[in-house]
Design goal:
The strands form 2 sheets. Strands 6-7-8-3-9-10 form a 6-stranded mixed β-sheet, with helices on both faces. Helix 5 packs across helix 6 and helix 6 runs parallel beside helix 7. The protein is of the alpha/beta class. The protein has a single domain, classed as 3-Layer(aba) Sandwich (Rossmann fold). It has 10 helices and 10 strands.
C-alpha cells in the first residue's frame, strides 16, 4: 500500500483567547480530524466560515502547529522537516492575491532567484510556469499595474507552481473574484490534474466552486469532518442526510 502524500492523524487544534479570572479561555477549531490525501488528488475542503478550513491548510505548511495529533508528508513527521525543505514541497496561495515588485517577472521568478538560480534560468522557468496557468511568456515583462483580476490570480498561482510543490494549498482563492474570473481560475486548476501534478487542496465556502474542479469533497463543519466522498457522489446527493443536520445548524 502506497504512503499517502499528506496525512492528518487525530488532529486537535484550539486557539487561545486570553485569561479570565485565572481560567484560560480557548476555542476549539479542529476536533479529531483524520484525513489522508494521495498524489495528484484534487480535493475541495468545503464548509461554512469558521469550520476550520483555513486552519487545516495552515497546519499543513506549519504556519501553525496542532495541539494534538500528527501530520505526515510522504510518511515523514512534518515537525522533523527543515522549514525550507517543507516550503519546497508545500505551496500555499492565500485568498488575497498580493503582488510585489513592479513586474510579473519580479513575482514569478522571485522564489527561484532566492534559491540561487541565475536570472536566465529563473526567467525560463517562470515563463514555463506562466504558460502552465494560461498566460504567455510575454507577461514576464508586464507591469503589475497593467493586469486585470484574472491575470493577477494566475500570476499568484504561477508564482507558487514555479517552485514545483508536491502539495498545493489554496485558501478560498476566488473569494474576491467575480463569477467569470473565478471560473477562469478553476479551469486552470482543473488543467493541473495530471499524474505529475501536485496534490491540490482548495478550501472554499461555495459548493459551486467544488463543482468546477474537485474530484473529492471533504465537508468540514465546526471543526469536524462530516463527509468525505468522491465529488460526483457528493454532488449527486450521497451523504446528504448526515450532512444536512450539520449544515442546517451552521446556517450553511
Amino acid at each position: 500500500m502506497s504512503v499517502p502524500r499528506l496525512r492528518f492523524e487525530r488532529i486537535q487544534k484550539f486557539h487561545f483567547h486570553g485569561t479570565v479570572r485565572g481560567h484560560v479561555e480557548t476555542a476549539e477549531v479542529l476536533r479529531d480530524v483524520e484525513l489522508e490525501f494521495g498524489a495528484d488528488e484534487q480535493v475541495a475542503i468545503l464548509g461554512p466560515a469558521g469550520a476550520g478550513k483555513t486552519t487545516l491548510l495552515r497546519l499543513a505548511c506549519r504556519l501553525e502547529d496542532p495541539n494534538g495529533g500528527m501530520i505526515y508528508l510522504d510518511g515523514r513527521d512534518l515537525r522533523t522537516l527543515d522549514i525550507r525543505e517543507l516550503r519546497r514541497h508545500v505551496g500555499l496561495v492565500f485568498q488575497n492575491h498580493v503582488l510585489f515588485g513592479e513586474s510579473v517577472e519580479d513575482n514569478v521568478a522571485y522564489g527561484l532567484r532566492a534559491r540561487g538560480s541565475t536570472r536566465e534560468q529563473a526567467r525560463e522557468r517562470a515563463g514555463a510556469a506562466l504558460e502552465r496557468v494560461g498566460l504567455d511568456r510575454s507577461f514576464l515583462d508586464r507591469k503589475n499595474t497593467s493586469l486585470n483580476a484574472s491575470q493577477i490570480a494566475r500570476v499568484v498561482l504561477g508564482r507558487t507552481l514555479v517552485l514545483e510543490p508536491t502539495v498545493l494549498l489554496l485558501d478560498e482563492p476566488a473569494a474576491h473574484l467575480d463569477a467569470a474570473t473565478a471560473r477562469d481560475l478553476f479551469a486552470v486548476l482543473e488543467d493541473l490534474h495530471t499524474p505529475a501534478g501536485p496534490t491540490l487542496l482548495c478550501a472554499t465556502t461555495r459548493l459551486e466552486e467544488a463543482r468546477l474542479f474537485a474530484r473529492r469533497v471533504v465537508l468540514l463543519v465546526a471543526g469536524e469532518v462530516v463527509t468525505d466522498l468522491p465529488a460526483d457522489e457528493f454532488l449527486a446527493g450521497a451523504g446528504v442526510d448526515k450532512a444536512r443536520r450539520f449544515l442546517t445548524a451552521s446556517g450553511y
